[in-house]
Design a protein that fits this description.
Elements lengths: L13 H30 L1 H27 L3 E2 L2 E2 H4 L3 H29 L5
Antiparallel strand pairs: 1-2
Helix pairs in contact: 1-2
Length: about 120
């Protein structure tokens, strides 16, 4: 490290590495959105939705297979085996939690825009 600047992931603490791993999931989602918006800009919404459908499935398959190999879980018909091994109640709990996170994220975005740009309608 030079002047306390991180030059590579190896320079991070384990805690900061773990935080960066989570941040990388976020960055993948943002990058996916940026691609969608550019295709929408260039080709229109209908074609962008078609491209997103194609890109999502290919990208998901590539990413989930890499995670399965890296984290050591099996896949069955494109689904992580640990999810298939969960009870229906546990799967419902995860679905409810993800739904609440989705709604909370929407509210956080709304509040951030409202706070930072009160002129926005």
């Amino acid at each position: 490290m030079i002047d306390n600047k991180v030059e590579s992931p190896e320079d991070l603490s384990r805690h900061d590495m773990a935080r960066l791993v989570l941040d990388m999931f976020h960055r993948i989602m943002v990058h996916h959105t940026l691609w969608f918006r550019e295709v929408e800009h260039q080709l229109g919404m209908e074609k962008a939705l078609d491209v997103m459908h194609e890109a999502y499935h290919k990208s998901f398959d590539i990413q989930i297979q890499r995670l399965a190999r890296t984290l050591g879980f099996e896949m069955k018909e494109g689904i992580p085996q640990p999810l298939l091994d969960m009870s229906r109640d546990d799967l419902l709990t995860i679905m409810k939690t993800l739904g609440m996170n989705w709604i909370a994220g929407d509210g956080v975005w709304f509040q951030a825009v409202e706070t930072m740009h009160p002129e926005f309608p």
